Amino acid sequence: MSRRKADYPIKRSMNLYYKPDRTTKPATAALYILFALTCLLGLAKVMVYDLWAETRDAEQVLALEQARLEGVMAELADYGQVREQYSLYSATEEEQTHIGRMEVLDLLDGALGTQAKLNTVSVSGDAVQLQFSGVTLAQTAQIVRTLEASPIVASTQVNTASTTEGAGAQVQASVFIQLQKEGSGE
To answer: How many CA atoms, within 13 angstroms, populate the side-chain half-sphere of residue 147?
Structure first.
């Protein structure tokens, strides 16, 4: 038997797998630097750019509001003159507490009518001093009752009602009237 040589595989070259280290190459270093820059850029956008954009928008809103405020202040520039003119034509706080003079004159005109001759009227605050003549004592009493029936009259007081003639003669009367605001009871 002839022995033949068995065919066994034979390795004739050396096959060692070797992976070269590429981390030190410039391209790999550039990728790491690019990754770091991308991360920094993302953080810079969130932590710097967004805050800067918000601040810029807030400054623009502030500028618009300041311009609007200046416009309003320009409109109010003559406020002192307007207030002074208004105070000339409007009642002061003290005058508002008093009864209107026209109201008092209307009351006296309604009470006296054509039966009495009005001599003098003096209005001071809430007090009215009235002198009239040309009526009898009975007519004077009727005038006083009419005055007391008014809601703006708190009280009346006849100071004098005198005549130098007989019982039906005409008198000269002086009446003090204390006024009150309508609806307020004293």
So the answer is: 26
